[in-house]
Design goal:
179 residues, mainly alpha, 0% strand
Length: 179
């Protein structure tokens, strides 16, 4: 097949056979038509991958068959819910609690002195060792340990908590109250 016109005519001539094969797979006229249409779109899109001189019919039937089985697998994951009953019963946990907690933490961190915030972020958030944080900040190991300790204590005071578990307990309580 030397031109797109010849190739298109050959494909169009296969439509009745494609439809019959699609119907034998789906047992539904509407689904068979959709399957043939999807096959023709894929074939036209990938016509440059068809090797002239090979079996066009087999190529098209393979596309149709693969498309059908892909749709079957996809439909297995779908839930029929014409009335919306299933969708009405779906619930997702509230996600704004984490956002509120992160905003509160960010606001509390801004209230810390720069050197305390830097030390706490390097050790607490970035996961660096005290030694690595001390090297980055250009200060003694004891100074970093002191800054991190003071930053933690001040952060807990700002967030009105006695220890870190209180902060998490407040978040858990808020989540439980919303459920």
């Amino acid at each position: 097949m030397s031109s797109d016109g010849e190739w298109r005519d050959s494909v169009v001539a296969m439509i009745p056979a494609l439809r019959a094969f699609a119907w034998s797979l789906s047992h539904n006229g509407s689904d068979a038509d959709d399957l043939v249409q999807d096959t023709l779109i894929k074939a036209w899109t990938n016509r440059d991958k068809f090797e002239p001189g090979t079996n066009l019919r087999a190529w098209l039937f393979t596309i149709l068959r693969n498309t059908y089985y892909t749709q079957v697998i996809r439909r297995r994951r779908e839930v029929r819910d014409e009335t919306g009953e299933y969708a009405n019963n779906l619930r997702a946990p509230a996600t704004q609690d984490w956002s509120v907690a992160m905003n509160a933490l960010a606001a509390a961190l801004k209230q810390l002195p720069d050197e305390h915030r830097e030390a706490l972020i390097l050790v607490g958030a970035a996961g660096l060792s005290y030694e690595e944080a001390a090297e980055i900040c250009g200060c003694a190991l004891g100074t970093i340990k002191s800054r991190v300790n003071r930053a933690r204590a001040r952060l807990l005071k700002i967030m009105d908590a006695e220890d870190a578990t209180d902060v998490m307990a407040l978040e858990d309580l808020a989540a439980a109250n919303q459920a």
